[in-house]
Write a structure and sequence with these properties.
With 224 residues, this protein is of the alpha/beta class. It is built from 8 helices and 12 strands. The protein folds into 2 domains: 114 residues, Rossmann fold (3-Layer(aba) Sandwich), CATH 3.40.50; 94 residues, Orthogonal Bundle (Arc Repressor Mutant, subunit A), CATH 1.10.10.10. Helix 2 runs parallel beside helix 3 and helix 4 packs across helix 8. The chain is globular, with a radius of gyration of 18 Å. It starts with a strand and ends with a strand.
Length: 224
């Protein structure tokens, strides 16, 4: 049985989530503040963490950062915030996904299923490279011009997919289906959020590689 840690200080929400998740066959623990959450995380194993941002004692951002220092357990953030900059910050901290409150439980369950699949690998090789970018698929390490760059799991998989389809224009729908999965219940805007995050982490390069094709999607190309 897969185990989920809910970190949420609103008791009605956490209880609702607990009942729905247990009905789906998951085992559930609940923490209503950041300190309790870290203590539970330290002493038990969880397959996935659902993390609210507005927590007492220790913020959700700080909890996410501290968890990510110790583990690559998938983290889905539950947030009432809807500004892109805060979403980018969450991805930088290591969150695998986010869902904005209020949400439909079916959408959350679908996202949990996608994350727990650990996101399929796109090739059996050990390395993938293009235009100064090198991915070590075994160790999950990314080098840009031989400089190590820290990416989240989804960022890594998205960049891998772009490299495998380099110099081909890709629609948001193609990227969404291939990286997040056909049963992902979120919208295509998540692709834009992750592309922006990837660009931010590589914006020190003079040569830009990820180009926007207005009205359609993106292309990974050394040519501008």
């Amino acid at each position: 049985m897969k185990k989920i840690l809910i970190i949420e200080d609103e008791k009605k929400i956490s209880r609702y989530l607990q009942l729905e998740l247990e009905h789906e066959g998951y085992s559930v623990d609940i923490a209503d503040d950041g300190m309790i959450a870290l203590e539970l995380f330290k002493n038990d194993f969880y397959n996935i963490i659902l993390l609210d941002l507005m927590l007492p004692k220790l913020s959700g951002e700080e909890v996410c950062r501290l968890i990510r220092e110790k583990s690559d357990v998938p983290v889905i953030v539950l947030t009432a915030r809807d500004k892109t900059f805060s979403k980018i910050n969450l991805l930088d901290l290591g969150a695998d996904d986010y869902i904005t409150k209020p949400f439909i439980i079916g959408e959350l369950l679908a996202r949990i299923r996608v994350v727990l699949r650990n996101k399929k690998e796109f090739s059996n090789g050990k390395l993938a490279s293009y235009g100064g970018i090198r991915l070590d698929l075994g160790k999950k390490i990314v080098y840009v011009d031989e400089k190590a760059v820290s990416l989240t799991k989804t960022e890594f998989n998205l960049l891998h997919y772009l490299i495998l389809n380099r110099e081909i224009v890709l629609s948001r729908e193609q990227m969404l289906n291939s990286v997040w999965g056909y049963d992902y219940a979120g919208g295509e805007k998540i692709v834009d959020v992750y592309i922006k995050s990837l660009r931010k982490k590589m914006d020190y390069r003079e040569q830009k590689l990820i180009h926007t094709i207005r009205g359609f999607g993106y292309i990974l190309n050394e040519e501008s």
